[in-house]
Design goal:
Layout lengths: L24 E2 L5 E2 L3 E8 L4 E6 L2 E5 L1 E6 L2 E12 L4 E2 L6 E8 L4 E10 L8 H4 L4 E2 L12 E7 L10 E6 L3 E3 L1 H10 L16 E11 L4
Parallel strand pairs: 1-8, 2-15, 3-15, 10-13, 10-14
Antiparallel strand pairs: 3-6, 4-5, 4-11, 5-7, 6-7, 7-9, 9-10, 12-13, 12-15
Bound molecules: zinc ion.
Length: 217
């Protein structure tokens, strides 16, 4: 299956008229700080993870529920970006994980920045990219956040689906450089350029973060 070509991304905006596209540069001195919030992630690891190729790249389908600030979402899939898509005060982290969430009305993405750390044990992500069915827990890909940024935008690949709720965890996940190299080998430079924020509200919620398993805790 042919993948989208990031060298053509100047043409992608023709698929939407949205003035609220993603990704954006998050400017910490302009965010609205909100009261303490909750993120609860309930993983269903029983069926493992199923890899599937689509035009925007390899996706890892998974099961579980994510509760964010009183709203409940079902996990659909996750994928990686080589080079973060969202910037933080103009700085680009090494990568970004996107966990796509759905409920009856809407789509959301829970994002986590990735950063290289030689002291971290490798998660053997290379194997993740070369199997179709995996016994791999998403838990190892979720940083212990102290808060999250929230704003409304689009998906970052065509057709740039609108009205996406974005939740970006404030703490990056440290990964062994081997794991980042595995991401890069599979998705080299698959980050969309920064879009105008057009004065959009970006909120910051300090968070109590809990990750559990559906059948054990
Ligand atoms: Zn993505």
């Amino acid at each position: 299956m042919a993948r989208i070509d990031y060298r053509d991304q100047d043409q992608w905006s023709q698929t939407t008229r949205s003035t609220n596209q993603s990704p954006i540069n998050i400017q910490t001195n302009q965010v609205q700080v909100r009261p303490l919030s909750q993120i609860q992630i309930i993983l269903n690891n029983l069926r493992g993870i199923t890899a599937k190729e689509i035009p925007s790249g390899q996706q890892f389908f998974c099961e579980g529920q994510v509760n964010i600030n009183g709203h409940s979402w079902q996990m659909e899939r996750f994928h990686f970006h080589d080079g973060a898509e969202h910037l933080l005060d103009g700085q680009r982290y090494d990568g970004e994980l996107h966990l796509v969430l759905k409920n009856d009305q809407q789509t959301a993405v829970l994002g986590a920045w990735l950063v290289a750390d030689e002291n971290k044990t490798s998660l053997a992500l290379k194997q993740l990219f070369h199997a179709n069915q995996l016994a791999f827990s998403l838990r190892s890909l979720l940083p212990q956040a102290q808060g999250y940024y929230h704003y409304q935008g689009t998906l970052t690949t065509p057709p740039l689906l609108e009205n996406i709720e974005w939740f970006i965890l404030d703490q990056p996940l440290a990964l062994n450089p081997n794991d980042l190299a595995a991401i890069r080998a599979n998705f080299p430079d698959n980050h969309r350029q920064i879009q105008a924020d057009n004065g959009r509200l970006v909120e910051y919620f300090p968070v109590q973060f809990h990750i559990g398993n559906q059948f054990s805790d």
